[in-house]
Amino acid sequence: MAQRKPIVAGNWKMNGSVELVSEIGSAINECKNEQVDIIIFPPAPLLLKVVEFGISVGTQTVSEFNSGAFTGELSAELAKQLGATHTLVGHSERRIIFGESNESVADKFAKAQENGLIPILCVGETEQQRDAQETEMVVAEQINAVISKLGIAALLNSVLAYEPVWAIGTGKTATPEQAQAVHKFIRDMLSKQSEHVGDTLQILYGGSVNDKNSKSLFIQPDIDGGLIGGASLKADAFVSICNSAL
Ligand code: PEP
To answer: Which Pfam families match (predicted)?
Structure first.
């Protein structure tokens, strides 16, 4: 079995400030460790500020287009030029609030890779879908949209984040067993198409992870770290979550 390096990613959403970059940047630089990759996803205007701290940084979305008359959109090429290494694609807030479909998320995934960014593909079911036992179907459809467009090998240069929508920003974390079951389902599903992808793909858990529950989630065999929202805005909590992935 492959040794998968854990990742702890902080999604700041539309929060934070220049001062917060300094506070969290310094805290991360004190605790940085070769054994965990830490990536911050700040609002785009703060990208360069994070780069100045020598911390890996990504965008929270990218446009599926190269350039042109797309007011307000975020270019993968320019993000790369500014030092971004990763981008989130298909975060549930983008899917639900901004109407992104599985197809447009697949296009964004492709555009990110074309420009040398590593996409973190976010997938996950709503509470109604979980109650209707549709979790596996929904997650499979979200992942298969990317595979149908780009082929299974495209996942080799990407990361997945399982984020149940009902757990995001709600304080209702999936139990380690619930999260592990979906991660294992995803890994088994991918292994049927490519054992190598199934074995090596890093799959993060996201949804109300905090410094109290992170360890119990991260020790699950198919969970390779976390995508952290609210708790990534507090230096102490975020550092302690990063340390719990060691
Ligand atoms: C997220 O936004 O990806 C997230 C997981 O948020 P939170 O940790 O606040 O639930």
So the answer is: TIM
pTM of the model: 0.97
Contact by Cβ (8 Å): 139, 155: no
Give the CA count within 13 Å in the CB-facing half-sphere of 219.
4
- Is residue 168 in contact with ligand 1, taking CB distance under 6 Å? yes
C-alpha span between 242 and 108 (Å, rounded)? 28
Give the mean model confidence (pLDDT) for residues 199-218: 98
Does ligand 1 have an atom closer than 6 angstroms to the CB of 229?
Answer: yes
Q: What is the ipTM of this complex?
A: 0.98
What pLDDT score was predicted for residue 31? 87
Q: Which atom of ligand 1 is nearest to the CA of 168?
A: 10
Residues counted in the chain: 246
Res 200: pLDDT? 98
Quote the pLDDT of residue 33: 86
Summary mean pLDDT of the chain = 97
Give 115's contacts (C-beta < 8 A, 6+ positions apart).
Answer: 62, 76, 77, 79, 80
Spell out the domains of the chain, with CATH numbers in brackets: 7-211+231-244 (3.20.20.70)
Q: Structure tokens of 152?
A: 């299974």
Cβ–ligand 1 distance for 241 under 6 Å, the answer: no
